Amino acid sequence: MKSALHSTKPVHELSICQAVLRQVLAVAAEQSARRISMITLHIGPLAGVEPDLVRLAFPLLAAGTTCEGATIWIETLPVQVRCRICATTSEVPLNRLLCADCGTWQVDIVSGDQLLLARVELLDETAES
């Protein structure tokens, strides 16, 4: 028997893929693109998103749209914190959100918790002929 958390995890990525698809289709319509060739996402390890599940779910949702067949490229961003005490910005391990310079726990996350649509590559099929 699967736990409730385990069984809902893919649904989370599915809804994220739906939101990404809406954004990409809006860009395609705005630019009068006939097809999307590549979509680049930036996902931080603190975003709560499983990149492999996004890669699996997106093609299912994109079927029959201008995104069908598009390559999904996911770049994992590092976790970076900015210290409130010494103002140092440093890259830190996921499980150790401390200032790398002075060691304090009083930090703000500046990178690693985002999910961004970074790039959409559009194709005009008439230009390919």
Task: Describe this structure as you would to a colleague.
The protein is of the alpha+beta class. It has a domain at 4-77 and 112-123: hypothetical protein PF0899 fold (2-Layer Sandwich), CATH 3.30.2320. The longest helix is centred in the N-terminal third of the chain and has 27 residues, at 4-30. Strand 3 and strand 4 (89-91) form a beta hairpin. It is elongated. Helix content is 33%, strand content 28%. It has helices at 4-30, 51-62, 125-128; strands spanning 35-43, 71-76, 80-83, 89-91, 107-111, 115-123. The chain has 3 helices and 6 strands, in the order αβαβββββα. It has a 3-stranded mixed beta sheet with strand order 2-1-6. The model is unreliable at 1-8 (pLDDT under 50).
